[in-house]
Design a protein that fits this description.
359 residues; 2 domains; 13 helices; 47% helix
């Protein structure tokens, strides 16, 4: 097992990574500092791992709230269900919430924890690769709105993250690929050596080799933890973690959060960012081809879904958290391993990129 510290002064917390991390009852109990615990999970994950978490809570009063599975349930309605359960059962402000599931459950539970009585503690137990390398780390919590993804939320750090590589054995191949989009992202934004390693070892990762999985989760979390420690509330450098997300969120919103997984949209979005960078003369076409090749080998889409239009993309991109005073900022590439935030691009080049991926 490896432990990474997210260094945020009094809000610092550990990320535990390794095989059978969830089997360590003593370690888990260290972070359950309340006698009131609410586990939030979904129907799919509950059938697999809820009993294991419950076995660690034999000495406390706990409840489990089981929600339907899917991105469409990352909503204010689901948020209200969590808050209602907490209030009905008279949970105090010293209670702890446990998010057991993927990114939807983690974001939703974290947002409820941020809001209930102005903030209570929560623990992240991510059960997808995407959640383990990205959404469970860094304290971003949110729910979706029909007009935009993650537009209602708060920054609220967990007290611990338990990333067990063994749970990935039950993850569908498509979900694994979606998570790898966020892994590849770290190589593109700031870690060229990691990107090179992924190019050489992506097949080993997709075969779920234990050492390879532990390595990519560890390296991804180290990258994210360093960025978050420098800029917790995304006032500067942390924005680079959103590479491809403006394009990806626009696709997801156009599809009403159906059809594509979040990581699939982000993967396509990263390639679109690379394409736009090429059209602006920032990188060579060969770099775009490198990124496309790795995404294709990871079985991620490299064209926008057929049901999405140029008009939808442009309209949805206006509703983005990186917009400032009506100006949309994007993360673009100087090179693989070197990105930056800018509004210095032309609308014509943006339209050309979108149209290219719609063809």
């Amino acid at each position: 097992m490896k432990a990474i510290e997210v260094d945020l002064a009094e809000r610092s917390y550990p990320i535990y990574i390794g095989k059978s991390v969830l089997s360590d009852k003593a370690l888990f109990e260290q972070h359950v500092t309340s006698n009131q615990v609410l586990i939030v999970t979904n129907e799919t994950v509950a059938a697999l791992y809820l009993s294991q978490i419950e076995s660690h809570l034999s000495n406390v009063n706990y409840e489990a709230l089981i929600l339907p599975d899917g991105e469409t349930y990352k909503s204010l309605d689901s948020f209200n269900q969590i808050i209602s359960r907490l209030m009905e059962k008279k949970y105090s402000r010293t209670c702890i919430l446990i998010a057991l599931g993927g990114g939807v459950i983690g974001d939703l539970t974290g947002f409820a924890a941020a809001c209930y009585q102005r903030g209570v503690k929560f623990i992240q137990v991510p059960t997808t690769l995407l959640a383990q390398v990205d959404s469970s780390v860094g304290g971003k919590t949110a729910v979706n709105h029909p007009l935009g993804k993650n537009m209602i939320g708060a920054f609220h750090q967990p007290v611990a993250v338990f990333a067990d590589t063994e749970v990935l054995s039950t993850l569908p191949d498509r979900e694994l690929s979606a998570g790898l989009a966020e892994v590849i992202k770290y190589g593109i934004i700031r870690d060229i050596e990691f990107y090179d390693w992924l190019e050489e070892n992506i097949e080993l990762v997709r075969k779920r080799d234990d050492d390879a999985l532990e390595y990519i989760i560890n390296r991804s979390c180290v990258n994210k933890a360093e960025v978050v420690a420098e800029d917790e509330r995304e006032s500067g450098i942390r924005a680079i973690l959103n590479l491809g997300h403006t394009f990806g969120h626009a696709i997801e919103t156009a599809l009403s959060y159906k059809e594509w997984l979040h990581g699939e949209a982000v993967g396509c979005g990263m390639l679109m960012a690379a394409d736009l960078s090429m059209r602006l003369g920032l990188i060579e076409e060969a770099k775009v081809d490198r990124i496309r090749s790795l995404l294709e080998r990871t079985n991620l889409p490299t064209q926008i879904h057929k049901d999405v239009s140029l008009e939808q993309m442009l309209e949805n991109m206006k509703v983005d958290k990186k917009s400032r005073d009506g100006v949309l900022y994007l993360i673009l590439l100087n090179d693989i391993g070197n990105v930056f935030v800018t509004s210095d691009y032309t609308e014509q080049a943006l339209k050309e990129t979108i149209n290219h991926f719609l063809s």
